[in-house]
Design brief:
Structural class of chain B: alpha+beta
Largest interface: A-B, 37 and 39 residues
Structural class of chain A: alpha+beta
Helix content of chain B: 40-55%
Helix content of chain A: 25-40%
Distance between the termini of chain B: 36 Å
Order of helices and strands of chain B: EEHEHEHEEH
Oligomer: heterodimer
Shape of chain B: elongated
């Protein structure tokens, strides 16, 4: 199925490139233009998979592969069981799944069995506008937070270093039920546009680059050339995310800016805490309904010359 | 002057059904046919065509079959199913009705209100 999709899309690119060549475009330029005008190749494939209603097995396989990679990447965990539940919804057949990562050696999160991650199509990250829909329209969750991978250059203190980190919504750390070792977590408003200028450090980064000194609080550091003030340091045992970006060593607020209307460009990882008394199946059913509703609002990209 | 308009998703579906109703086509052929019958006034973003094709196939309105292209290459051809034929008909009627209603509203003069 996968390779057929590849064959089909590649046929398209080549057929178009050939037409361009026939109209006088040089071969290399033709291929480049064909790719460019096609738009995101991987995204188109993802949307195709979604449109076709990926089978339960495919989704499960993707999740399993993901689970295996996770274990390899995070040898610190004794074991991680990933329970994948996929659900096809009616004629539109968008596949949606909530994956509940049960950590046998629980991380330093409060009541981690109630924490779930919500994925698009059972394996993929989520677009900002979808996250906002889910957050605002769902009743199954006590709290929801989102994270984007971000790896800035740390400069302004002796040698520059490439640091792995995450941009997180303000809601995320309180939802996990964690407390900082030093300083504070992000407060309301710090993830609003234009005000995201605080940073929370991981323990190892704090030890390595700031000699584990408490005077680090209030200090300004440069991340990708922009000043950020250190407002907190997390405890030694704290790790976030528990999978995917397991080596994150710093966290900054995530302001969505113009991305609030974005239903493509999936990049967010969503984390949520189930409301008391809500079972995973109920949450899943609710999310499927919300997703189906927002899908019907998606506009096809068609340009009209008038 | 090019103007970008966003059309509702259903519009693209309808155009695809119409294009394949005139004979089996591969994806690229569907794109060209829509451009051709719209006299190049419609240009579909290429990447958005395939998710629509997969959706329509999943819904049973079109069927696909691997065949050989004009250039003897392996290509996937789409054609309208019986259900798709009925769907195209009802959607066309609905579109015309809607267009009538909107046109009626837009041409209303003050005396008529």
């Amino acid at each position: 199925m996968e390779s057929e999709m590849d064959t089909e899309l590649r046929f398209h690119l080549e057929a178009y490139a050939e037409d361009l060549i026939r109209s006088g475009v040089p071969r290399q330029e033709a291929m480049r233009r064909a790719r460019l005008e096609f738009g995101g190749f991987e995204r188109a494939k993802e949307e195709c998979r979604e449109a076709r209603g990926a089978t339960f097995m495919e989704t499960l396989l993707q999740d399993l592969r993901y689970g295996v990679r996770t274990m390899l990447r995070a040898p610190g965990f004794t074991a991680i069981a990933v329970v994948a539940l996929a659900l096809g919804i009616g004629a539109n057949a968008a596949i949606f799944s909530v994956v509940n990562a049960v950590l046998l050696r629980p991380l330093a999160y409060k009541d981690s069995a109630r924490l779930v991650t919500i994925l698009m199509n059972g394996s993929g990250p989520v677009a900002v506008a979808n996250y906002i829909d889910w957050r605002d329209l769902s009743h199954s969750f006590k709290a929801m937070g989102a994270a984007d991978y971000w790896s800035p250059n740390l400069t302004g203190i002796d040698s520059p270093e490439h640091i792995r980190g995450l941009k997180v919504t303000q809601s995320l750390f309180p939802m996990l039920g964690v407390e900082p070792l030093l300083g504070r977590l992000f407060v309301e408003g710090e993830d609003k546009d234009g005000s995201e200028r605080e940073v929370i450090l991981g323990y190892r980064l704090w030890q390595r680059r700031f000699s584990g000194e408490s005077t680090v609080l209030g200090k300004a550091i440069l991340l990708d050339g922009n000043p950020y003030v250190v407002v907190g340091v997390m405890p030694k045992e704290f790790e976030f995310a528990p999978f995917w970006a397991t080596h994150a060593e710093l966290w900054v607020p995530n302001a969505f800016g113009s991305r609030v209307h974005n239903r493509g460009g999936n990049s967010l990882r969503i984390f949520a805490r189930l409301n008391p008394g809500i079972e995973l199946a109920q949450a899943r059913a609710e999310m499927a309904t919300i997703t189906a509703r927002s899908k019907s609002n998606i506009l096809a990209r068609i340009a009209v010359s008038l | 002057v090019d103007k970008q308009l966003d059309l509702l998703q259903g519009t693209l579906d309808m155009l695809i059904l119409k294009a394949v109703s005139l004979g089996p086509l591969h994806g690229y052929g569907i794109l060209l046919r829509i451009q051709q019958i719209s006299k190049d006034r419609l240009e579909i973003q290429q990447g958005s065509l395939y998710p629509a094709l997969y959706r329509l196939e999943h819904q049973g309105w079109i069927t696909s079959e691997w065949g050989e292209s004009e250039k003897k290459r392996k290509a996937k051809y789409y054609q309208l199913s019986a259900a798709g034929k009925r769907k195209l008909q009802t959607e066309t009627e609905r579109w015309n009705r809607m267009a009538d209603v909107i046109a009626g509203i837009l041409s209303t003069t003050q005396e008529e209100v």
